[in-house]
Every structure is written in C-alpha cells, then in structure tokens.
Amino acid sequence: MTTWALQNAFDELGAVGVSVKANYNGTYLGDPSYDRFLAELDERGAVLFTHPLDLPGGPPGVPTVPGVPNFMCDFLLDTTRAAVNLIRTRTLDRYPHLSVVLPHAGGFLPQIATRMEAFGAFCTPPLDAARVQDYLRRFHYDTAGPLAPSGTLVATAGADRILFGTDWPAASADIITNFTVPAIETDPVLTHRQRRGINRDNALRLMPTLRRA
What we know:
The chain is globular, with a radius of gyration of 17 Å. It is an alpha/beta fold. The strands form two sheets. Strands 1-4-5-6-7 form a five-stranded parallel sheet. A two-stranded antiparallel ribbon has the order 2-3. The longest helix is centred in the middle third of the chain and has 15 residues.
C-alpha cells in the first residue's frame, strides 16, 4: 500500500485499520522494509490486522504435508513467526501507538511464551526474557479458528485483549455458528463479563469510532 493510499484511506475515508499478510514472499512483518508503512500507521494510532495466506518456500495453496491443509497447522505457525519477528526486531517498541491484531488466538504464540523466555538468547538480536510477557500483552488476539479453550491465552495476554473473529468468508457460516460461537459461549475459563468484552466491548475500546458507525 502506497503512502498516498494510506493517507486517502485514513484521512479521507475514515479507515481505522488495515489488513496485511503475515509475510510477503517470505519477508515477515518486522522486517525493516515495512518501516515506512508502519510509521504511517503508528502516526494515526491505527489497527494492523495480519493473517497468514501464502507460505514461504512453496507454491501457493500446495500443502506442506500432503493431505494436511495448510490452514490446519501451518497458518498458525506463520502467524507465530510474524509475531515473534515483530518482537525480535523491536518493532513494537518503535511504533508504540500501533495496535496489532493476531488471528487464530495468536497461533502458537501464547503456548511458546516460556520457550521465548528460555531460548530467546538464541535469536538475533536476542530477546529480553524479562520483557516477553509485556510484549505478548501488546498484541490483540481474535477468536477465529475456532478458539481453543482459552486458559493459556487469558493467562498470557488477558481477556481484554481478545476480540471476536470469524475468518469469514474463508470459514463458512456453519463453522462460525456451530464451532466458533459455541467455543466462546461454553469456554469454562471465561466469565460473563469477559464474554461480553470479547463479543463487543474490547473491539469498541480498540476502535472507538465504531460506536458512531
């Protein structure tokens, strides 16, 4: 997206955020090539939603493991790679007004928090183990997928960082009504107040202009 397109979308049309892929031809969010784009978003306090689509190193749409669709496992890893790269490159520090929404409950990110703390020194530059939890609380996480039982995610990021997501139109209406919505409604971890936050209030706090929409 060009600078002009961003300016037109936000300043003229009233956009509150953009959606981008987790990687473009193997270049993940957090790479310096995104800096000008992210600076424009940060200046506007915008929301950046990222989503996996084309995996690096293979033809589009061809499963990494024959017979296992990429959206089953690999998409979660692609989201996790993008999130870790945003942390590793200190992108979240450079753009403190940018709000990043990760799909599918953040992929594997909440589950590898302790691995990042234990093995972050092997990254280049190394991760600061003392700041991993703070970084994970900088992200927002949607429920598309559908959401698995949320205990680890709530403990890692807090229920106020979770947003209702559907994956529509990639996910059919049957998936959303039969799996995504019931997963939230029956999750034993969530309170009534937290469910209301996920279904509505958290999004309005993140994007308050939606109240006037």
